[in-house]
Amino acid sequence: MAARKVLTRLSQPHLLGIEPLSSEDIELILSTAQKYQTRTAGETRTVPRLDLLAGKTLVLAFFEPSTRTRISFEMAAQRLGMDVVSLGLEASSVQKGESLLDTIKTLAAMRPDALVIRHQGSGVPHFLARHTEVPILNAGDGMHEHPTQALLDALTIRDHKGRLDGLKVAILGDILHSRVARSNFHLLSRFGARIALGGPPPLVPKEFERLAPGIIACRSLEEALEGADVVMMLRVQLERQREPLFASPAEYARHYCLTAERLALAKSDAIVMHPGPFLRGIDIAGEVADSPRSVIPHQVENGVAVRMALLELLTGAQA
Amino acid sequence: MKPLLIKNGRVVDPASGLDARRDVLIEDGRIAAVDARIERAGADAFDATNLVVAPGFIDLHVHLREPGKESAETIVSGARAAAAGGFTAVACMPNTQPVNDTPLVTRAILAQAGQAGGARVYPVGAVTKGTAGEELAELESQRAAGVVAVSDDGRPLWNSRILRRALEYGRALDLLVIDHCEDPHLSAGGVMHEGEWSLRLGLRGIPALAEELPVTRNVVLAALTGGRLHIAHLSTRGALEVVRRAKREGVPVTCEVAPHHFTLTHEACRDYDTRTKMNPPLRTAEDVAALVEGLADGTVDAIATDHAPHTQTEKQTDFESAPFGVIGLETALGLGLERLCHTGKVSLQRLIELLSTNPARILGIEGGRLEAGALADLTLFDLERKWTYRAAEGFSKSRNSPFDGWSFRGGPAATMVGGVVVFRR
Known about the structure:
The complex is a heterodimer. Chain A is α/β, with parallel strands linked by helices.
């Protein structure tokens, strides 16, 4: 009998993306996260402040604006007793012309226990990981990956659906520019979900189907929504568009906003997710975002649990 | 200077069709005789047993960075790297600082090249002032000062009116126009080939179309004007097909392919290694197969390296921030042998044609022939020796090669320019 291998530590020294992780790694992260969840089986509980990682230091280096991911990492670290130091975008010496590599080497020389990096350049954490021993957690690199988001999404889907395999997950909107979508492709595909993509044609290239098994680039939002168990909306990333790929936000909203009417195409018990920050009335109608179908607040809660799990696994003294 | 007698080599000269064991006698910088057995008292002897003796290789596309960026390469270091790669001549692109768009800069490059002591250096002038693509540069004066071609390489000749005028001058002056074919709107922001890997890596893509559309336009303009047009670093199957059709119709168009484009695919970018970033980018396996076919069947005229040195500091950054370009002079022959000859896809004769005979013809310079009376520019190489390329030990000042650490079978043994041995392994 081929027993599934259960890991007690990650096979990787860094969290650079979902793609390099094994299924066992992902299971380990999710099961570790479960013990940090503030609500299980619908019941809310408070997680006491722990001192598991007391004396350890986490450095947050965010080269791109972020609210929720940054605060989520800070809370995760503090709940585990870590000290947190933040490198502000404005304060960083990158502004003074220092090279990115030199900045990171300087930070690494202060011997933090882990480094969380968000950067507008795809592959930046991978580049930096080649030059430092400090564990790096990718908090979003350009249009490439946002692994903690995909992990918290998976945890949330499991909380509501009990599984990932066999589910139809519709990922909708600006997929081309989305690192959240790419991380989700790898994770959901690995666990047997079908992934239906829908959005404006230039934002949903057919070649996405080659990234992982089970991905279908649909011709319309409606086709992608049909019979979905999970509806994952993405924010329109105007800041990453180098040219207007649709006429106006209003034009986009008319055809791609998740309204109650469009949501009716999905299964009646489908859940609605969004990595945030969401644009009310553009990505998602207010009535949908505020409805009981929306699990957006739950995603945010799970974000802290997933990040606590990762900090434990990457910096904790593992046997 | 004492005569030089190259003994017992396998002399391959595509121009005359010769491929036989021959001795080659060099006197006063020229080939004095090629014969089965030559004896000459007082000559220095060079034993070429087990070596191929070919007309000197000519790289019609390099960037030597001087003037302006001597930290990455100089004319001297570039000419030596060329010699170490088996090249007896290179044509250097005008995108220096300042741009080579006047006779003054051309003369400065030629003066420096005269002292280089490696390969010959032939300057390519700019088509437009500052290679800005807007106003024609002094084409006739540059020609008179000694440029062998004109190009805005690094940038495309995007303005069709400018390209038309340049080709009109080109026809009258018998001056080759070289174009870096890229539709700037289609390629805007792109850092690698648009396809599965750019999507996977979250990097902006440069579609094949961005090259194929200007190539299509260019052959129309070449046909219209009768000016000789050369397509730089052709990288896609579609662009190759356009050139194939144009040649069949008698359009005066030629093209070159870079070794990295017939060797690597876009998958090589998977680790965000900036040494795999160049423009045009590494394409798909289908493109590579088509290029190899084009190299074999004559659609492709030349192998050119697009040697583009960048300092470690410039390249040691994230993929998107890094400059485009890789060095290639010292690995071109090794890759040609490994990927084209040893695989049986391209004959040795044809490889030499791509590296020597054709580039000389395209540029209209002396060289590319191995017969009595010809310039004594010779490339000697072996077909079997195993060696490993180490960029840090190379002659170029830069190390940005995707082939660092690659092993090769066969490579340069000696390079002679005007009968002088400028490189010997």
